[in-house]
Amino acid sequence: MRQLAQLFQHTTARLEQAGIEDARQEALQLFEHCLGLGQNDLLLRPELVVGEQKAGLLAIALARRLTREPLQYITGTREFWSLGFIVTPAVLIPRPETEFLLDRVLAVLRTDGYNGGPVLDMCTGSGVIAAILALELDAGSVIAVDSSYAALRVAVQNWKRHGRDGVIQPLCADLFTAFRHNARFELIVANPPYVAEADLVTLQPEVRDWEPKTALFAGPRGFSVIEQLACHGHEFLRAGGWLFMEIGSDQETEAHSLFTGQAEKRYERVEVLRDWSGRPRVLQARKTG
After folding, report:
1. 220 CB contacts (<8 Å, ≥6 apart)?
2. How many domains does the chain have?
3. In a shared domain, residues 22 and 135
4. Which residues constitute the domain of residue 25?
5. Residue 21 clears pLDDT 70, i.e. is over it
6. How do residues 180-231 score in pLDDT, each as one tens digit?
7. Contact, 144 vs 155, CB < 8 A?
8. Which residues, other chains included, contact 56 with Cβ-Cβ below 8 Å and sequence gap of 6+?
């Protein structure tokens, strides 16, 4: 058995040796998850002896993390929008870029107004977008689409956790294929797969080896889903309805052209917004009319 401070030093050192960034913070999160102990305990009770059972749980979790399994899959949770969400290997781990997407959606709607119409969350994954839209907009109807049954099971758990399972309807489908031709939404928000297949080798092991590839990759150039959203999104928007979509930081020019280059001028107010680090991140477009 080891004292708390010694065990923390050992855990941090092992994470650093594995090349994991911010090893100290990750060690703290593993301690909180496995031991129920945190920063204050390290400061006030460094000589506390950790029992064998809890030390064993920590050792198992640490071994998993050393394989570069994401910390969020080990703990089973991810904080997003200051709320806790369930995550499993069936879903992409929510990222700060998606918080920026939602921030921009809500900012535009505060200016332009939201009339309470139906909302569509395309490629919902863990369901965080649908949950936040239902909470922040007080929307009466949100449909959340994903092609993965496993992802939707996680999403439903998250909606129940935050009291919005009665508002959000899950739909397992390939993009718009399950909708009737007369379905219309006031708002469509999407965080689609947009990584080019050729970029696989450039990704961090946590992403490359663990997160679901169907939620990451979209053809040779990363545009196969973005193109579908640009081509068909207007068909399912009300006149004046908004579409917001997360894109890759290297996709600004082509994504913008997909929405502005159509002879029918289906969209207006097309703009690519830069995230908090200054990178192109969100495309917004409004249906003409």
Report:
1. 196, 197, 198
2. 2
3. no
4. 4-67
5. yes
6. 989 999 999 999 999 999 999 999 999 999 999 999 999 999 999 999 999 9
7. yes
8. none
Residue 263: is its pLDDT beyond 70? no
How far is residue 207 CA from its own chain's centroid? 13
How far apart, in Å, do the first and last CA atoms of the chain sit? 70
DSSP code of residue 195: B
**50 lies in the same domain as 89:** no
- Using the 3D structure, point to which of 67, 98, 118 is the last residue of a domain: 67
Six-digit token string for 138: 């007080």
Q: How far apart are CA 193 and CA 259, in angstroms?
A: 18
- If asked whether residues 131 and 210 sit together in one domain, one would say yes
For the segment 272-284, the average pLDDT, to the nearest whole number, is 96
266: CB partners within 8 A, 6+ apart? 234, 287, 288
* Residue 25 to residue 12: CA distance in whole angstroms: 9
- Structure tokens, 203: 């990704």
Kindly state the tokens that stand for 95: 């990222």
Residue 222 included in any domain? yes
- Regarding whether 37 and 178 lie in a shared domain, the answer is no
Tell me: do 105 and 246 sit in the same domain: yes
How is residue 187 written in tokens? 């708002």
Average pLDDT of every residue of the chain: 95
Examine residue 246 and state whether it is found in any structural domain, yes or no.
Answer: yes
